[in-house]
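Aim 2, interim progress. The first record below pairs a target sequence with its structure tokens.
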Amino acid sequence: MAETQRTEIDALARAIDVRSLRILVAIDQAGSISAAARSLGFSQPTITQHVQRLEERLGASLVSRTGRAARLTPVGALLARHAPRIDASLTAAATELSRVLGRRAGLVRLVALPESVGSVLAPAASRLAALLPHLDIEVLEAATPEDAMDMVQDGRADIAVTPTPLIARDRSTSARREGLRTTFLFSEEVIALTSADVPSAAGRVDASALVDLPWILGAGTCAAAIADRLGRAQGAADSSVSRADAAVALAAHGRGTALVTESAIAGSRLPAGLNAFGLAPAVRRRMVATTLVEAATIPAVSAALRVLASRRPAVAEVEAVLDARRRSAGHRARFASLAAVDPAPTHPEENDDMSLTNTGAMARVAAVSAAGAIALAACSGPSESDTEASASSSASSATAAIGTDTGEEIDSITVTLPGSLSSLYVGSESGILNYYVASIVQEGLLTVDADGALQPGLAESWEQTDDVTYVFELRDDAYFQDGNPVTAEDVVFSLDMARDETASPGLAYYMTNIDTVEQTGDNEVTITLAEPDAAFAGNMTTAGAAFITEKSFWEENDGDVGTSDSLLMGSGPYEVTEFVPDDHATFERVDTWWGDLPSVKEIRIDFVSDESTRLLAAQSGDVDIAFNVPFSQAEQWESIEDMRVLYENDLSYVGLYFNLDVAPFDDPKVREAIAHAVNREAYVDTLLDGHGEVATAIMTPESLTSVYSADEAREILGGIPQYDYDLDAAAEALAESDYPDGFDAEILTPNTGPQLGTAAQALSQDLATIGINLTVTEVPIEEWLASLDPSSGYGLNYMWYFSTLGDPAEIPSYLIGADNPAAYDNEEILDLLSQVGAETDPATRIDLLVEAETLQAEDVVNIPLWWGQSATAFSNDLGLTDYSAFTFVSTWPSQLYAASSE
């Protein structure tokens, strides 16, 4: 019986063809055979013949004709309902096949509401076109979010970018449709525009204070949703418009209060007398991208999703909402840049069995397997002393393996980065890889040495004359690569551009405390802060936010620097001679640098997103330096005869954090239960193979070494309260919560950090034993970064932060300070962090930070997992003077030399 049924199903499946399914969808949408024919570009008889042949094969009527109209029968409607998903799956398979066969093709159709076309789709389409010139991009409009999602569900569009209902702390979101995949992109606050004199505090106004004023209602505004929350009825003096810009214009002329999102006023200069306030409490609108589950795997669609997720909305000049945006931009600066989004990447040889394997699936399988190994290792994890010994021995072995300088010059070297760059300017694309590359060309006023201590850079000396004033004396032998001298005017201009949130969104956050930058002498620049900040001087390095360029170069290129046409201008030992975005960049040594002439004449940097491809290149002898070697391949890299792999603590922090605005994670007992289910020792021992260290705090031990030894730092941080791995205690805590029977949750992990996904799988297994069903979803890093926004709706999240400054306050300020991603509000901690900023004694600063971390640990907001290491592979004939966590955020090529083979 079962065999007979299976035979019948197979026969029906063979009878269905995708062209006929598309025809049924067209008839359903157009309402007639002739209209469907016109929409598909076929003749009416052709359409009729296709339908008739399919009806004969299936033995069922599919289309009912009445006069000139046509509608689908129940059987036809059933097939049309499944058609878009079948079409998407076949398209994904065909596109993957075209990649294997070396063909390049792709189409992506983007749809949004009219008001989102200009602010979201247009810049995303431009970015896609620049990255993938062979990709066809269609931009469509829909009248409502429902219409846009209908277009995706019906196969008329690939991605719908739509707003969801306004959210406050109740976390309300729109319902998900079956078969659709939703990606959070960004959120933006609702802004009140009014010329009325209303009570406000810190740039925010309570919406109830606006109730009795005339309002501007209608499409393009958020007034209806806010009015509904307040129970406000439409008044006789209210106006109604259909566009956001019309609402802004009416508010500007005193015709009422407009409630619009940030994007409605971004880039606009508001007229005098018109006030812009954030609401208290804040109300946000989320923007999401929706696609068919099957279509999300089509490379062109996947690339578009990544570009959409990587973009932030334009900045609105409303001070009450700017700081959170700056913090978000600053955090993104500590991550790898966009990996290549090319839907047709180069593949291994066809006879390689792995060439047809989906790397994402491989990562997930490996994660599950490793999770089991971690679970087994849990019974006998390493002791704390073992972990410390592993970390310290790795660092010392790296130092011992440098080699002896022969004094010979090196014609050229090839460096590979495990990602891709589309811009060389850190201000516009500020991933950690951008820092590595830009430091070859550009310099800051100061630099950092191997221990993280500040040293002279373009400034040969500097002085802090009071709590908020820094005076930098520029060296007189500094020149740009075009031979022009570095002037105080160039420095002031460069820092002003770094402060500009439009010109340099990746750097502006680190400059927000600057009040003025002035030329106060021929070679003197004075910077005045708005308030004391003991760690400020570190921001004047290329590990921070100071990338000095030539004013005339910037102006000649209208600020569009770092591109393949404009390249970069700096004062470093190398100039950029070629940049092909997402492919490679080349650098040549110059004789204009004020320092000693480097040994290497030419550097080529290849951007290689596929780790297997990079490993093969190294095994073939085509790589001299490889950044960020994955631990999963470390043994293979170590086995390369002419290379060595060096490990170094890299100032990175990995941990979990809870969004306290999202249930059930607002329940302290739920957070405590999860904290007890975290097996940090096993993660480090099994997952990282000892190349890392169990974290006991958000601060890293290296960030304390300006005051304490490594052992003293670990002892201090070890005193911060922890939750031991104890599944019995986890079960007890959950039983005491408001969710004793458990619940379902999801955590996103970035595809650039497979070790995070593996640890999450292990955590999922442990949580399952106490009734919590945790789904682990690997996503592109752009989607993961977007999800860190507190408005994203994810309650359990990863934090993966790379510090370049090594200041102990850097990571805690982001994770537990104002506008933190956990939506955690603790006035005592905010006061402590304020004291940290003003305190000049390093030991006292650390004491204050330990106190702040202790308070957040008692509230179970962040769960530290590990402090990371990075692995760098070097050719054995290439040496490096100093290898540390700070090496590659200074002029690191100047430290390279030809090493002896002895």
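The second target in this work package is listed in the same format:
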Amino acid sequence: MADLKHIEIMKEDVVKPYRFRSNPMAPKPINRNRSTHGKKLAEELSQTTEFIESKRVQLGIDSKNLLVLEIISDAMSKDILENMLIKFKLFLVEEEIIDPAKPNKSKLVIQFEDKAALDLFNKERELWQNNDPNNAILTCAQRRDLFNCIENIRMVSREDRIGPRLKKYFENPSLFPKDFFIVNIDVWYNGDRSKIIETENIIRKALGTQGSALLGDLFEIPSLLLGRAQVNEFTLNALLDLDIISLVDLPLSTVSTEQYELYSFDFEPIIHDNLGENAPLAAVLDSGIFSANPLLSNVIVGEEEFDTTENTTSDLNGHGTGVAGIVVYGDFNKCIESKVFTPLVRILNGKIMHNENGDTCFPADKRPEQIVKEAIEYFHKEYNCRVFNLSTGDMDHLYNGGRQFAWAEMLDQLSRNLDIVIIVSAGNVPNPVINEFDSREALMKNCRNQLFQHEHRLIDPATSALSVTVGSITRFAEPEVTQNRGVRLSVGAENYPSVFTRIGRGVNKAIKPELVDYGGNYALHQIARGNTRWHKNDRNLLEPTLNNGNDRIFKGYCGTSFSAPHVTHIVARIERALEEQIGERPSANLIRALLVNSAKCTPEMVEWTEESIDALYSGKGNPRQERRLRLIGFGKADDSILYSNERQVTLFAEDELDLRSFHLYKIPVPKEFLSVHAEKRIVVSLAYNPITRLSRKDYLACNLWFEIFRKMDEETLLKYKAKKETGEDTEDDLKNLPDSYKMASYPGYTEIFKSTLQQRVWAKSARGGRDLLWNDNNPYIYILVTGKEQFKYAEQDSPQPYALVITFSYSGQEDIKLYEKLQSNVRIRDRQRERARVQIKA
């Protein structure tokens, strides 16, 4: 079939802006006894500040600035919180719900600029306690609402500052080194760069001059300053007692990489390399790349060593070369039999890790966040690279709900500021639990259900909201069979979630991982009767890629590290295909929206994941779809999305949404498409890139979502708009419309609207489709895109960019002129004409 350009469309002009009203369901402050509670708060405030000051004096710190307190609030609305922050010039460094069962009860970590700001706050508390009617910083009513909401004021606890790796040392003090050792430190930060030097001086004074030291300058991300320090046991405790410290932990643990040979040393590939200067480009941030492999020697555009431990950009570990091979070639399994290998993506080699006893490690003198940021900014600036693969993570930092990780936030900031796409692996569990089983089927079910356990949750930075996170599924299901060796049992059939993969959800229950791809499979074997162990290097179950040595070309691996580059390969090709079609560099939103639009789940994947059992689920009902989304997201991406053709046609739109309005797209549905005797699908996807703030429990400054309507005319939608102008504004407004108006698509928007990457599918069998055949002359559907702010931010009046993608597809050979019928009935956007008009005006 011929490659055709995707069709760019425009929204309808029938909808005017409307105003969101405040939420009448916002929590109401508790009516407290002013005298009793006021005295309690006064005592807590006094004790806390005295403790902070005494600790600083003990450490030789004279500064009265940058005071951090923890406030436990009950029923504090967003308006009350924002008023407090603005009036006292405070900075909210963390906001999180303490107990999911009590969503109105929050922990707020507040940074006061100095002692004077704290005194003003205390003065207002005193006025409230005495029921003073006069206005000061706050009005009488504002004081009432604020201090009624505050339950406790206290220090940030020392225990909260101890990271998960360091906690193991405190549980077993014999592990502590007798001499100096290195720790990571996270420091509260209010975004004021003029205070960074002062903050560094506070930390240096706390560390003293007897061998402990801050190693280099602090590394700035939006909500934290990240650093690394050399400490002994005494100065470690000094840091843990310092109020400006958010977290202290041991450096990132090493990444386990399993390396096994897959093909013999005499395998000779036939290479068809026709890549030109405009071929797709992606950066591989890993342990380096072995450029002497004949399948890589001509596709590396640039190399840079950010980890200088080994003084070479070459890969001495193998992990980076394995990742790079898949980024360049995609699916090796498709070309092994023919021995013909055609590279499709050029690569940049960013060495951010080195080899250490078979594992990949970051350098000792830099935080991983810093070295990754340096690599991304360098390749973006020097090579205009916009696609990055990051197959690593911090296995000790499990996401348990609550606030975002620092590393993930840094990636989100880069994604938005540079308009790039970062693909991140979901992470692995190297040694999953082996549960008892009495059959092969029970073994596979146990391995699937085990994925819902705590140890399989996502790690930092896989929770990144604007990156694309990728989990692992199995490609091969049958282990090797050899003589004189015990039977091995595969723990997953083809396209099942790999037993070692990690699953979601992400921050605020976002869909994570969004995609899955092939990353290998484990087997079980018995060393002795009843003594069962994992076998991780079965030749038949590994994911094939490239070797980092001259002895042989290929190796096999297991891990989500090798699932992510499959997606990176497709992303790089999408970027270049879009640029060719629209005549300019596509936005990261459009690339991501097109990517997720391509994702599919086989019927077997859907059935297997929806039959899963989550032993930790305590709610009512049977949320099968929710379990599927956690296990495999939206499915496996497909490179057929690069171009349209006669039986698969993609429409797309890019726009910016004022959060006090909505956009409407009228999409024709050809009658021939609905009546064709073939399986048929309509897939709608949305991508947007909101501002992110680690300090806020919502994390995303706004949410966008969409609903798809059928059997609804423009007049009905305008009535709905008018209702919103005069009624309540909640995310449930669309949900409450009659179901008969909505197109039957899955999942529902309420299950995915907290995600920056969303996909919904209408799918019918060969005989299905009549549910959309409601207008004999010209059937159509409406797609309504809307959103809402979650917290106030500096760029609040700026509209939110987004990309919307709609794909019609059907199986079979009948030509129903789908492309022509869609193209002739939608509102076409002409970018070339728009550019010409701009040039004339200039």
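The first strand starts at residue 7 and ends at 8. This observation will shape the mutagenesis plan for the next reporting period.
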